[in-house]
Amino acid sequence: MTSFEEAKTEETVTCLHLTFYHPGQEEKMMFRCLNFCSREQVRADDTAKFGRDSSVCRYNLMDTRVSRIQFSLQFYRKLNTSECGFEIKNLSKKTKLTVNQTELGHLNKIDLPWKCTICFGDYQILAEIQEGESMDYFETHLHLAEAPILQERCLPSLQPIPENGISPSLFLPQGKSPTEIDENE
């Protein structure tokens, strides 16, 4: 047998992709302590904490409006399965955390959906879980968004569109509205 045949089977690693956005990120540089360059390994039994206290938090946000410990992510294996997941817990006494519109108060926790948006204050974080097999550790891969993750949703106008598919409002001067005429005129 060759050494290739005797080598251990390579296992995939669960990776948590986190994309950060704050409207003042260019001026305030609150993400300057985060490593956006490469993936980072985290032991499975460690809790990944986010906040402003560098002595406690693995991921530091340099902003006085962020709690010393804002929230934590805990890696776990689901009962009676080989599937893994993450649990998010709000550790801030002052700021509520929302995960896809689910509001978490102090010490509330929920399972992190495989793709979700985490918000607190003006911070927006897109979290995406890439599944893996390893039970010893997981990886985080941080990204920086240049545009807001959550956009204000503009509802389309509820004006009828004619059969030719061209809206008359595109061609009308401001303040003018279309008038209805009879086909026979």
TrEMBL record:
<dbReference type="GO" id="GO:0005737">
    <property type="term" value="C:cytoplasm"/>
</dbReference>
<dbReference type="InterPro" id="IPR033621">
    <property type="entry name" value="TIFA"/>
</dbReference>
<comment type="similarity">
    <text>Belongs to the TIFA family.</text>
</comment>
<protein>
    <recommendedName>
        <fullName>TRAF-interacting protein with FHA domain-containing protein A</fullName>
    </recommendedName>
</protein>
<dbReference type="InterPro" id="IPR000253">
    <property type="entry name" value="FHA_dom"/>
</dbReference>
<keyword id="KW-0391">Immunity</keyword>
<feature type="domain" description="FHA">
    <location>
        <begin position="49"/>
        <end position="121"/>
    </location>
</feature>
<keyword id="KW-0963">Cytoplasm</keyword>
<keyword id="KW-0399">Innate immunity</keyword>
<dbReference type="GO" id="GO:0043123">
    <property type="term" value="P:positive regulation of canonical NF-kappaB signal transduction"/>
</dbReference>
<dbReference type="InterPro" id="IPR008984">
    <property type="entry name" value="SMAD_FHA_dom_sf"/>
</dbReference>
<dbReference type="GO" id="GO:0045087">
    <property type="term" value="P:innate immune response"/>
</dbReference>
<feature type="region of interest" description="Disordered">
    <location>
        <begin position="165"/>
        <end position="185"/>
    </location>
</feature>
<dbReference type="Pfam" id="PF00498">
    <property type="entry name" value="FHA"/>
</dbReference>
